[in-house]
Each structure stands twice: as C-alpha cells, then as structure tokens.
Write a structure and sequence with these properties.
Four copies of one chain form a homotetramer.
Chain A lengths: L4 E6 L7 H11 L3 E7 L4 H10 L11 H10 L8 E4 L3 H13 L3 E4 L7 H14 L3 E3 L7 H11 L6 E9 L13 H6 L2 H4 L4 H17 L3 E9 L10 E8 L4 E7 L10 E6 L3 E5 L5 E5 L5 E5 L9 H5 L11 H20 L12 H19 L5 E2 L4
Parallel strand pairs in A: 1-2, 1-3, 3-4, 4-5, 6-9
Antiparallel strand pairs in A: 6-10, 7-8, 7-14, 8-9, 10-11, 11-12, 12-13
Helix pairs in contact in A: 1-11, 4-5, 5-12, 6-9, 9-12
C-alpha cells in the first residue's frame, strides 16, 4: 500500500451507534483514513461530529449531495476514495446511487435498501459502474465464520442436511421507540426501516450468515412474524422454516423481544459427515461435531495451522487473545481497502471477501418473501433466485 | 410408607435401553420393589432377564397376559401393585388396557400409544377405572424444570411471548436400523413406532416440556418433516412453528440426524418481564433472564431457599453434587409410588406430579397434527384441544 | 450374582447427609440390600431411621457393637456381608476394627481415621484379616475420572509436568457450627474430625484424585492453612505446593470459605504431550488438550468407543444422559459388591477398583504433613511414603 | 481534544508480536497518531517497518537515541509527544530514561525493567521528571476488570479472604527458542528478559491484576519455580503461595508449559460477603458470587446501568458485541492520551487509569522475591513494600 485509502462517511452523527463502529473498524488496521463526512442532516450536529473527529471544517458537509460534489471537485491526490454509508435504511440507496454517479466506491450498511425494487436498481447500477460495492454484513468478517465456510466448502461435513440459525435479542421488548432512543425510532418506522423491523435488522444477518457459510441458497420458506409490543407497526419477532437448494432444511428465528438476550446470533450446520456450531457472543471458538468422535473446539488465532488461510488472515492475535466485533468488522474494511488499493494500482479484477450487492439483493428478497409468507395462507413461498 | 410398593414390568429385556433406566429409577429411593416381569416375548431372553434381576423363576412370565392373570391371583399382601410398561410403542396400549382390566395401576413409557384413537380409548378407560396412570415424560422430573414451571406460573416472566424448544440428536444420522440395533429398529418401523419416528420419540418430549413449563397449550402449528436417511420410512428430522393459546409464538425443532449432538433438549421461554433457559445436558442450572439485570444462574440443590418447594423436593443432594437423568426419572417413580401408597392407605384423591393420560393424549394429538401439517399445503393446522 | 449382597450400616441417621447418599448408591444397581443398621447413638433416632428404611425392628441396633455381635450370630444365609461406615471421622477406626474382628468386610467413608497412628493400625488389621476394605473416595467413581487415569497411564500425556487440583466450597464461610447444622458441628470439632477440617474433609479428596489419576505420589509439600471464621479451631481454607515423584510439580487449593462456590473439585494435568481438565460439577465431560490441535471434549456414555473399558463400564446411559454424583458413588458400591460376590463364590483374589486402606493411609499422611508444614517454617516437608 | 496525540515507537519491527498490538490499540479510538519510530536495530528491517506503516522515511530512525534527538529538535507543533516502548525487557529502562531526558512522556511495556535496581532508578527519574509514565499491564484495561475492582472497593465482597489467580499458557512447552521464534528467544534469555521467564512475562500480569482489583498488597510469599524444558535457563512454570496485607491468603500459578492452554489468565476473589470470577479468554463476563443467592453474570456493555462508571466508559459497544484484547489495550492508550491532552491543555494533575511506575516497581519486586523464595529454604519471604 502506498498510501492510506481515503474514506468519507454519510450518517453516523451524535446518537448513532453503528457509525462509530464503522470508524473504529476503518481505523484499526491503519490503512484507511477518514477525510470527510456528512454526518447529520442537522448542521449543528454534523459540525459537532466533525470537530470531535478532528476533521477540517471544510470537509464536514451539510449533505451527502454537497459532499459528493465537493469531493469530486478536489484534486485526485486528496479526494475521498470511497464512501461509507451508515444512515438509516431508507437513505442507503439514494446515497449509494449518488456516490456511484460521482465515481465513488461504496461500502454500505445493511439491509441494503428498503425494498427489492430499490435493491435491483442499485445492483444494476453497481454492476454497470465498475466501482466497488461492499455491504457490511459484518458477521462474515469473523475468522471462525470464514473457517466454518471453509470446512463446509471443503466437504468436511458432507452433504448439508440441516441448518439452524437464530438471532435472539431483547432490547425492543418494550416500547423504546418514542423515548428518545434513535436506534429504536427508525428501526420501527416503516418509512425509514422498510417492510420489517426484526427480520430486516437482524433476520437478514442470520440469512446472510447461513448462506455465506453453507453456500446454499434458500429456495422457499414459511414464516410467522409477530408484533408483541403495542402500537408497534413492524414485526419484533419471527420464525421461518427454510428449504434450501439441494434438499437441506432449516429453521431461522430472530427476535428483539427475547428479554435478557443480548446479541445471540448462532449458526449450527449439520451434514452427513459432520456438523458445526458457532456463536457470535463467543466468536473465537468454532465447535466441530463428528458422528463418532469427540467434539473439537477450534480456536481463532493468527498463525494457527489448524485454520484455513482465510481464517488465519482474519486474525491479528495468537489464540487466547480474544478478538471481537470490531475486529470482525475491520476485516471487511481492510479487505475492501486492499481491493481498492489494488484497483488504484491498476489491477482490473479484485474481488474482496466482502458481501456484495447481490448479497444485498438476496437480503431484500428474503425480507420481502418473509413478509409475504407471514401475511398469507400458503405454506411455502418461493424466494426468487435474484 | 409401611411397605415397599411392588412393581411388575413389561418389556425391558436384554438389548433394551429404557427398561434398565426404569428399574434404576424405581430402585433409587428405596420405595419400590420389582417383584415380577414379562421382559420379553422370547422365553429364553425373558428368563435370562429374570435371573439377572434375581427374581424368583415363578414370577418371570412368558407374556403380559400371563403376568396379569397370575399376579391378580396372588394374595394381596404379595401381589404386584402396578405395572411399568417399557415396550416399544405399539404394545403400550394393549398392555395398559390389560393391566387396568386386572386392577393394576400403570406407569407407561411415552409416546403413550401409536395413534390418537388408541390414546382416546386409553384415556377413557383410565378415567373410568379409578386407577393411577402415569406417563414417563421423564424430563418433567428434573428439579430445574419444576422450578421453571414454578417461575412461569408465579408470573415472574409476565405474559409469555416466545417459546423455543429444541431437541437435537445425531444417533440416527446413518441407517442404524437393520444393523442389529434394537432401539433403531423399532423406532423407525411404523408398525411398532406409529406415524412418526423423530417427532414421536423426542418431539413429543419437547412438546410436553414446553406445555408443562408454560402451562400453555399449542393451538395450531405448521410443520416440516424430513427423512434424510435413505430407505427410512418415517421422519428423522423436523421443525414446527407453534402458536399457543393466549398469543405466544414458538418454534420446536427435533432431529435425530444432527451429527455429534447427543441429547440436546433445551427450552427457552421469554415473557414480558423475564425469560428462562434450561438445557437437559446440564440440568442442574436454570438461567433466569431479565430485561435490565444480569442473568442469574439458579442451581439445583436440596434445601436451597432460592428454589420452590417442588424443585427442592426433587433434589436429593446439596448444590454442586450433580444429579442427572436417573434421578429425574426416579422423581416420577417416587411421586407415583407415594401416590400409590396414599391410595393404599385409604386416601381417595392423590394426584402425583407425573404426566397424565391426558398429557399422553396431547402427545398423540401433537404427532398426528404435525404429520398432517407436514403432508399438507395449509399453513396452519389446528391441534385439537383433546 | 446368585443373591444380593447384604449390607449393614453404622451412622447415617436423621440429619446426616452422607448416609442417605451411601444408601442410594448401594441401591442403584440392585445388587446390594440394606439388612440392618446402627444408625444413631440415640435409640429413638436409630429406631426412626430403621422404620423409615422399612427395616425389621430386630435388625435396627442400638450400637455397632450390638450389631456386629447379633449379626455374627445369625445364620449365614441371612447375615450381613459387609458394613458401610458413615459416621463422623472419629468413629471410623473403632467401627472398622470391630467389624473386622467379627469377620465383616468394610466399606468406610473418608478420611479413613482421625490420625496416622489409627490409620496404620487399621491398615495392618485389614491386611491381616483377608477381608475386603474399601474407602469411599467417591470421585474416583466418575467415568471420566477413570478415563483420565487411563489416558495418563497409557502415556497419552507423556511425562507429567504439572498437576493443578482445586476444591472450592463456600458453605462454611460463616459460623455454621453451633447453629444446629450437624455437618458443620462435627467437621469443625477436632475431637470428631481430627487435625483438620478443610484439608481433611475435601483436601484429601483432591489429593486422592490427583494421585489416582496420575499414579504419581506426592513426595514433599509446602502448605498454608487458614482459619477465617472466628472461634473456629480448625482450618477452613488452605493451599499447598506439591512436588511429586518423578519431578512433576503441583498446586492444591481447598476452601470452605469461598462464598458462592458449591462443590468445585477440578483436576488439571499437563504432560509433555498433552493435558486434561475435569470438573466435578460437569462430570460427564473430559477435556483433552494438545499442543497443536484443538481441544477435544470427550463425553461419558455407555458403549462409547472413544472411552476405555473402565470408563465405559462406569456408565449406565448413552452420551447426553447426564449421570452424576450418586452414580459415581454407586460405581464404588457396585464394584465392591461384585468383588464380594466373587469372594463368596470362592475367588481368592478380587481387587475392586475402589480406594484401599493404603489410599486411606495416604490421606491421613497428607493431612498430617499439611498440618505440620503449615505450622512450621521449613519450606518443604517430606510426605512419608506410607 | 484539539489534535491527535503524536506517538513514536521503539521496537515492534517485523517478527515482533506486541508492537503491532500497541499500534492497533493506539489507532482504535482515533486520538493517537504514530509519527515516527525506531522499530529495529537492523536498519533494513527498521525501514521496512516504516514503509509498511506509511511513515515518512525521515522519521524512521536507526536508533532510539537518534529518534529522541531528532524529534526533540523538531518544532513543537510537529514533534512526537510520547514514546511507546515495545522492545524486549532489557531495553525498557534505557529507552525510557533517554525519553525522559529528552522530555518525552513514556508508555512502556511490562515487565518494566530487568531488575529492581533499574526499576527503582526509573521510578525516581519519572517522579522527578513530572512527565507521564504508563505501563501496559493491559489486562487492567478490560471493562470487567474495572468493574471487579469497583465491586471490591465498594465493599460488596466484604473483607477479602482468598485470592486465586492463575495464568496457564502452553506455548513454551517445547524448546521453541532457537528455532527462529523471536518471542521465545528473548523471553528465555536472562540477558534480555531478566531473572525470570514465566514469572516475569505472565506472572507479573497475574500479580498486577490481583493487586489492581483488590487493592491489597502482597506482604510475603512462598514460591516454587520449575524449568521443565531441557537446556532452558529460566523458569517456565511456577506456583506461589501469597499472604496479603490485612490477612487475605492467595495462590498464584503461572505456566508456559501447560500444553493446550492459550492465554488463560483468571482471577477469583472471595470475601466475607461475596466473590467474583473473571477469565481473560471470555472477558466480557464477570461472575458475581453470593453466599445465599444465585450467581450473577454481569456483562460488559456501553451504557449498561449495572456497571460502574469506569467499566461503562471502558466499553465501546452494547452488551453482546464482544470486545477483546485490543480494545482493553486501547483503553490504556486512550486514557494515557486523554491525560496527555489534558496536560497539553494546561491541566497540572492528570492521573490516567493506567498502571504506574510504582506498579512497575511492584512487578520487579515480585519477580525478585519469587526468584529468591524459589531458590531458598525459608518458607516465607517478605516482599518489600516498594
């Protein structure tokens, strides 16, 4: 790398949660530099954010439109390389489209858009643009998720039969929206979140993780969505029966009303020859299951010869030195930056191990299909291939 | 207690698994004595079992019919009090009916019968007979299951919203039937097991546990059953979306092809005010979850003031001295024996904390409804109330 | 087995803890029958115990002397075969000596005596008598402890380097003695417990477990004992540096004032080639550690081909069906009964896998050496070989 | 903060482990900027490091002496503020002394020096200089360690009675030194590591953690050190009995030959009223133990009202989003930077929550006392107060 990759950010002002995470992830490996931002629609808050981030005032913008225009006008040796989009869902597509139009690469939070139509349109634009687009399904950044994927793809588990993925949270068990909690506000608001709260916010992580690790696509599903908290419009809990291509069956359950649960994403996969079990809250262990042998606890760790190359490369520390959420997130940023650096150095084909615009479209199709299934009486609803 | 309660057994000869468990459970607390048995249809095996159990030859019978007739003819001070039925499923009802006709109380393994018709008939007969009937859904015998039930019933969790129950096993991941493994043979044989293998054998435990702890009845369900192992006729895996009376939602998954899993029954219940989490493989801990407080790990232990009376009474040892599967099973036997003793002492109403014939009927309705749902295209299938 | 082995019991009346455990352990496998007892020095309590245990009044004795005399006078086909001694420590030796004199085999609770002198004397008498003597260091009865021992003895861990054994409890963190708690009363009383409370009661379990699993003898030690609760005379906490024959080093810590701890016996052994980790509170798992491979979780289970024969034989149930404290305890009783049965059948040499009188003497030497070390200024105190 | 704090680094070139960790820790919160370095005594390796870190060539120095001289000569608005020392132990003191002489604040890796004499000298110089000095006993940076400290200091556990701290590792179980592994090379070399390998490298972390959390000082100790690997000169394993001021007892064990163990630092503290248990490998949970209540699992998480202010401030993410080793390390860097910023803004007294030069001296006294105790025959050796 000859120089740091230059990042702009849209969203992530005071009170936001995920913006700060993106910034730490971008910083961790020292290959990305935040150079500008449109942190808030509120100019005062935007400026406050800029000051706190030690940015020069002239690169703290009042709007993303202004940011893209101004940055595009800067000399190349100074100009932002890519934008990180950390706004509520409804702004993802408009910001991403504007970035692409201005020639900027895009790293965007999930779910990708607020509906399938927007997602298809964005996918078309990305593919036409030749620009890099990444989606921060951050859980794919964990080393042991990469190891799990490797083991499945290497055939160690044999033909996959059953996939269990769950994502219990409890933070929306009461009517948090309207109390000043910004995270709850927009996630429960159809205008900003889209057609689903729970399935959109965390169900898509579960769906993405299952497909990322197994490489299998959901073919049809049968969903039950609930809204337990009064006056809430969108779902806050749901369970889905899954049928995958090739015959595997599955069950996905996501919840934001499971009181006392924190961020319990867990994936279990069982094949003819073996199984695996991974839990986000203890992410450095991957349990490998065998029919006739003791369970093995594979552990994350740089340089561990038991791990595949991708997993090893995703670790910064030896076994026993826990890496967590931010490090996994940073793996996406660093892979994206490396791909960008290669592009800038003239490489024409660089495919970072970062979820793509197609994965984003899958997520939107999943949400749409789940919502449709939950509302209908048909048992199985096909999930469109793309 | 003036004397030990006298037990006869049907089934449980060499090669059986659960018969030996029932005998240990019966012995543990020293209140029950095995006095006779019809352990096998094979006379040689039956006699071998009798010898090993140190029974007098004249009380080792060639058939259950002979046993009931001979025992009924013995003087009262010597006669068997109740029969423990540990045969494959298809014999449960015939043996139980014969026992009732001869005036013997019955403790029967689960699932209760091979179909709903048999179950209804048996329920009718039990209720008319005035005799005690218990069903060994043994997981209800665990102290922390009783504690969980207590906490829900006392309102500590508030209105129940979500119930997650799972039961992964891996032992039928290959075609074990036909290899001489008797357990696999009959469980995968519709003639002996009934309409379901996985849902009948372990799915009903999961269903029973969920209803026992929450006191809520399943109203409708949506099931997907699979048969992954070739040439197998019955299901070896399945997942079910559940809707309970009062609005709670749930998901139940049971599997016998989840390689590497042992006997992973687990129940999670989330209410408006709290949640709980219990796992059979570490049965002495019950996790209590709260919206705004740390998780608490309640532990089994005789005399522990943090436990309800039923849980405390179900413990034989102080905290930290693990009790397990046999002890939980023994709690059913001991409760049944105590109720019988009370009867024999003239008490007219004795309701032991042991699953009933109605619970057995619920189990059969569950199996029937799951099988029907899995075969059909309707999304929700009502589960009959009884 | 042609008949059940007949057991008499000394101690274990109302209010006792361990007597009931011994009785359950004796009952579990159906090979031992309690035929008589001297349960309490208080005649009323003794009779109450006898009634509750459904024993005939004439075999509920007022004293152990009376019991041995009366039983010895009974015809052989009816007479007690062995005595189970479950009194406070100070009575172990007198009762055992009396039993031996009357020709009865002995199964005795630990620690074996109240001092080394008594222990040596008892060992001499046992060896001269030709009778069976077993000591209920019950933790050796766990399947995974037997597996651990097997792995070490088979050389899987290579030369042993480090042994860590700990036994934290919290139940004596306050002055429980004098409040009517009989267990606390005698354990804290030098006249009944011997020279140590904590090290005698649980430290010896830790010592025995370490030596049983590794086969290595402690050669010298350096101890620190404490008494944290006011007015208590004996130790309630202690830690010991250990040096084993062959060069292994170790550390043993035992405590009865570690508030919130239940019965946390844990053993870790590290050799040149591998390590192992076992915890009594989750006894069905044995972790195997390797220098360059993932940790493996070996699980207890009847018929599991990954286990050695001794471990398999110590299991009654398949993996995932937890067995606990009582089952481990029962393994000692059942092994003792089988050896007795072989003796009664004419076998001349039968060595059950039950801790011996020599192990009991080791325990007393350990206590004496620890107490001596704690009181002195020498760094290392030799532990006599026997 | 008006600007980023400027850091220089000594050590941490290619092949080093801890240097990269320090850099990530420094970067994470965006308040520190690496501006220069003397990464290696080998000029080629030094330059390579500088290039990889995207530093201007003129600020990549050939030696720390050159770095301090050159940086001191730069204009203030550009000059390095503090040095991060990440060399092998024997260079800590010389580099730190040179930094202080040139007016630079110091953040230094542990153990602080190679002997007590050096440590005392350094302490004197730091105190005289008025400059900030921090020592990266990084485990104190974990939120739940801060919470543990808070709970003890708030009196929740009552008078402390027993402290158990352990630190098993397995990475030096074979003769890794001399195989090209730089970490092993210098740690086992007295000239670079000091008088101890295992106790110096990780035993001091354990000692520091115990004293940090409890606020109690070790008064005397009794140590056994071992060297299991042939041809190794320094200890690779050791256990220490501890006596603390106020009467608490403890045991510390550290090992680098415990095969299969990764980085198992664990602290348990038991007081009259409560206890706690923390494990570095699952650092986001702190177990709180009570005499008569269920164990509570306190969890790290920004904004969690169950945590003390220091713990909350040490979290970047909500509960369930695991933070790990780097984040804990970063907490020291960020606290140090904040204190430096305050200094630069004119504050005269700023005491960051970062281990001090006195803590560093304590560590050296601990090593020296342990080594002395291990070599001698006296049972208890006093640890000098400072």
């Amino acid at each position: 790398m000859r120089r740091k990759i230059r990042m702009g950010m849209v969203g992530g002002g005071p009170g936001a949660f995920i913006g700060a995470v993106h910034r730490m992830a971008a910083r961790l490996d020292g290959q990305i530099e935040l150079v500008c931002g449109a942190f808030s629609a509120n100019p005062k808050r935007a400026r406050a954010a800029g000051r706190e981030l030690l940015l020069p005032a002239e690169r703290v913008y009042a709007s993303f439109e202004e940011m893209f225009a101004s940055e595009a006008a800067r000399p190349e040796e100074d100009r932002m390389d890519f934008v990180s989009i950390v706004t509520p869902n409804h702004l993802h597509a408009p910001v991403a489209v504007a970035a692409l139009k201005n020639g900027f690469h895009v790293l965007c939070d999930k779910p990708m858009t607020v509906n399938v139509k927007e997602a298809r349109d964005l996918a078309r634009r990305v593919n036409k643009s030749g620009l890099l687009f990444g989606l921060t399904h951050n859980y794919t950044g964990y080393p042991m998720v990469k190891e799990a994927r490797h083991r499945v793809h290497a055939g160690e588990l044999g033909t996959i039969r059953k996939i269990m993925v769950e994502y219990p949270q409890g933070w929306l068990a009461t009517r948090l929206e309207g109390t000043g909690q910004k995270q709850a506000d927009w996630r429960t608001d159809p205008a900003r979140a889209g057609a689903s709260c729970c399935m959109g916010d965390i169900g898509t992580h579960a769906e993405n993780l299952a497909e990322y690790v197994t490489g299998l696509r959901i073919e049809s599903l049968c969903a039950d969505l609930s809204t337990f908290v009064k006056k809430r419009v969108l779902d806050d809990d749901g369970s889905v029966l899954l049928r995958f291509q090739g015959g595997a069956r599955g069950v996905l359950t996501a919840s934001q009303i499971s009181v006392g649960e924190e961020n319990g994403l867990r994936l279990r996969v069982y094949g003819e020859k073996g199984g695996l079990d991974w839990r986000q809250e203890e992410p450095n262990t991957l349990a490998l299951l065998y029919p006739d042998q003791p369970r093995r606890l594979l552990r994350a760790g740089a340089g561990d010869a038991n791990l595949c190359e991708a997993a090893r490369a995703a670790c910064r520390l030896p076994p026993g030195h826990p890496e967590g959420f931010i490090e996994a997130f940073a793996n996406l940023y660093t892979a994206f930056a490396a791909a960008l650096d290669a592009r800038l150095s003239g490489a024409t084909e660089t495919v970072p191990d970062v979820p793509t615009v197609e994965d984003g479209l899958r997520g939107m199709l999943f949400i749409e299909t789940v919502v449709k299934s939950a509302a209908g009486n048909a048992k199985w609803v096909k999930m469109p291939a793309s």
